[in-house]
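Weekly puzzle thread! Below is a chain. First person to post its structure in token form gets bragging rights.
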Amino acid sequence: AYDLRKLAPYSGYDRYDFEVPTATEGDSLARYLVRIREMRQSIRIIEQALEDVKATTGQPHKTADRKVALPPRSELDTSMEALIHHFKLVTEGFKPEPGEVYFGHENPKGELGFYIRSDGSAHPYRLHVRGPSFVNIFATDHMSRGHLISDLVTIIGSIDIVLGEVDR
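Winning reply:
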């Protein structure tokens, strides 16, 4: 099974115990049953994450670096420096170092990835989104062979394609 949360854990997924549901059949019913098992695994992950949240009560939950995080709302009325940092972040954004990065993460429909290239300014020099529906739509040809045209609704629904994401 290909699941980025297991293959390349991010955001603490390596701390959680969960399974990646799969099926040997490739029909719409099997995809539906896998989706149901995925939801059960999601609940399992959420329950473990809630325990982690309880364990961190009272600890900071975001960075204190004012170059990348907004100051607390309570400081905006009393601190000119906080107001300036807030204004600059909201109007200009932050300026990452020049370079490029690709980050993919698991999504209910597959891998959702972002490629960002920075020239050091507050705006990306290049940005590309790899949407799972765009990749999955190419599988409909293979999945629909030997089926009736009326079966296409079920087949496409079972891989949950979002046509707005596919339209480029």
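Puzzle host: Confirmed. Bonus trivia for everyone else. The CA atoms of residues 66 and 85 lie 7 Å apart.
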